[in-house]
């Protein structure tokens, strides 16, 4: 379980010592893919437009819609113009310079595992590479390109949401640094899908550049990994399935922040304040973040995962033998299952390699003690939790040779805006709000922002505790030691929470939970029974309370939804977006009236997941009116 | 006639020329004398060889009765022809049969050591002679033998005869023989001399429940000749070599009726004497038989003009346990339900013995010309072949070697006789690599063979070279083309050389649609390299391919794969695992299970996947009807 992980190097150290300008203008000679078919960004477009696949779809669309093929081709060409990147080294150099400046102001250090970089160097030469970073901040892809430039690796092309395009100037800058833009939704648009998938595949097949995209699809506002999307994953795997490539290397990258730039923005967004539209002026306004201390940032390049070995024995590639390969084929049920398995595995690798700072432990404890803790007992409990987390395989970056209390007070200092410390007593609270008269609703709102911000740190370590915690909860609710009962309880919880957490299909989660708790001496797993050991009580209590906020949130959700439904008799079905606003309002009302203590139930993310889970479990049903 | 003959001789040097064949014929008597003496000696020694009454009539044939006498018992081809490294460390090819015979090949050693990491100091010599004591005593069916004797069919249970017919040329078969390991072998050998002999044998086999395994040229590479371990009955190898006559030639219809045991080169030579040929030239034609071609759906090098075996046969006669199967007329095409020939073609000895075949023949072509084209890379080469196929203007043969094979071909260049020649070679190399900018590590060569009347050949040649030029191809001369074809015939001998120095390897083939050729070649080659690495092979293997046939809708691809096995405890097992993986890769990339080698026992596991459950069921039900007792029990295919 305990994996050996690589050591980190701080890349900013070098930047603080030497000229940024020289760095930005240095000679850049990346290692290249051995099967590289050299071509320019503009040539790429014509290859895509001439491809058999796209030509086929153009003819199909034209015969279905009655439009002329020229018209459809023109449309395809426009789509491609809107989408395509035009990677330019000069832009990269510009970014290399400005980002160096920015990073030095924002972060104390930017740590990278150099062994991972070496592995990537190897992988890049052998087979086309797909980079799969976790997505917690806008910083992520800027940082990725920055790092690859730093280490003389080929610059990636990045699948980005269309939202950026609307930013004047910046959108074009991103395009020139390798971003290509895709619409958020293009469900039935055959032509769009064809252009998009052919574009990505062409770059992959030619080994043009590493393709980078986010499995989670969007930034996670909660710092929990999101349920991965499989669409793009399918696109990058298909050239392997169809034999066009011998293999594709997938490289999961875990990017973690000691303090996230968008921290309070996210909390507000979760509380129903829409995210500010991406705009250049907004970006300029956000300059003030530059004046704050965001601690350290960690980037861990995982081991390359070969698609070939993932698919070994799971995908029968000869299923593609009977159809010309340019004719698009919907993935079969087997392929679907494989894609989703693979996506979950990759996200779990991302999770496992995510660096955790002491603060996430402290945040976890503070959330469990809304009334605060004494510094000394906080230090003591943090230390206890640290050992538990390590035993469960957490990738904890704990400073060597420092007293626990020292470490705790350092962390508190960095996150002081979420805390109030007085007379040795620490409590989560609002600090930076001017102490003018506030309504009770406003007070609740501000407190909720703090709690949700704090929760986003606790969420970073959830994946470590998740499986044992589900087991702990299952044992609590089973009221029996019979293994079957516990197992059923566990499975029920897994089903309920599968939108919320990254839980893999199959029995591996249960086995893993048992194994971890047994190893820790908390449980004894016998043939038919699971018995708690004498010393295990505190651990189990801690674990089940980790998930408490979620359980409560899920309990509140149907309640609030009922209210929502009753409040509007004419419309029994509400669009999900509206629904969440209603839920939010209702929960808010309940909360303001003091009937609910769990602020996390206010999170629109949680409510959205809960609703999805209930729909999936057929506990609620959509009715069209 | 005279000019024609001389042209052919100069153009086709690799075959034993008539003078050599004649020399050979003179020696034959003595050799047979020796055989006979051996026979008498064994009799007098008092072994239970009283039953051995092999026929002693000598017929005209390149490979005559007692194959063991002129052919290797544990390797490929003629005993007198082999590669070796002489005392100076130079490679040479012995014997007098081939164009390469007696020549020094100065660059082979470097290529050999460099490619495989092999070393001439590290030898892995073969056991020199058959260890007859390792041969299990025969499990004889006495009543069958009695009846057989009464019927007057020649037979033997001499261990050497039996060992010789117990194997084909799969790596594991040859490797075991070299190590002196001998597994299950047939319990006796019978030599029918005509169709009715076969009828008698099959009838007796049914009567006495004996297992029959037909044996033609013994060149199988699919484990088809291996005796099934689970077989408890007496196994009889039915050697067709004595049925080797051309029964008639019909010049009006251009057909010949031939006994199925005839060996390829004999058939061709005898037809040539009448001014005809079949044009069917599989790489194994020096040793493989007509019946074997039919039973495995063989393919010939010049199929673009003459067709594959299924296109060449007009009529087939086969003896099955149910009786004789044949059509009632020699009509060139029929609509009489599914073509019964297609139950026979590719049946791999599971249904019966092909005894006589009526085949199309053609007048010997007036003119033959080799040629070659150099391409900057394999992709361009494949694109050119595809275009040639699209325009349906393929020459008699067109083959494209990849870069590794091109280099291999170079290593087989004999010593240049004059300074002028070596200067010329240098100049050519300079022109292609420096002037034309071809990367010597990417360029590849297509070899060509044109046939027909002179004017048309020259016209055809121009057409093909024009297409090649569009794909960056440069004409590279007749000599290179010829050497390319020679490589085909000697490569089998080279494996034996490799095996003397810890190098093992083999070839396998597939057919694949045009659009997948490049992907399949790349993926299979890479899979081989990767699998070798994973299984602890110390040096990167030789993993190379060539496109050997073009069709309207696809191509035939041939892979060579060899590696240095020093440091491996079970090299054959490693070899088999890698070949298995390579076959899986072929199937996953849209390639077929086999283009012409057949299925045998080696590729049986993929049959269902290849032809569907229903397809396999159909074949099984035919077997069930034709041979309910499983007399033809070699257990191939199904």
From TrEMBL, chain A:
InterPro entries: GPAT/DHAPAT, GPAT/DHAPAT_C, GPAT/DHAPAT_LPLAT, Plipid/glycerol_acylTrfase. GO terms for biological process: ether lipid biosynthetic process; fatty acid metabolic process; phospholipid biosynthetic process; triglyceride biosynthetic process. One of its GO terms (cellular component) is mitochondrial membrane. SMART domains: PlsC. Pathway: Phospholipid metabolism. It is found in: Membrane. It comes from the Eukaryota. The keyword Acyltransferase applies. Pfam families: Acyltransferase, GPAT_C. GO terms for molecular function: glycerol-3-phosphate O-acyltransferase activity; glycerone-phosphate O-acyltransferase activity. Residues 129-258 form the Phospholipid/glycerol acyltransferase domain. Keywords: Acyltransferase, Membrane, Transferase. Belongs to the GPAT/DAPAT family. This is Glyceronephosphate O-acyltransferase. The lineage of its organism: Eukaryota, Metazoa, Chordata, Craniata, Vertebrata.
UniProtKB/TrEMBL annotation, chain B:
Pathway: Lipid metabolism; Glycerolipid metabolism; ether lipid biosynthesis. GO terms for biological process: ether lipid biosynthetic process. It is an enzyme of class 2 (transferase). GO terms for cellular component: peroxisomal membrane. It comes from the Eukaryota. Its cofactor is FAD. GO terms for molecular function: alkylglycerone-phosphate synthase activity; FAD binding. The active site is at 558 (proton donor/acceptor). Residues 1-13 have a biased composition (Basic residues). Its EC number is 2.5.1.26. Belongs to the FAD-binding oxidoreductase/transferase type 4 family. Homodimer. This is Alkylglycerone-phosphate synthase. It comes from Cyprinus carpio carpio.
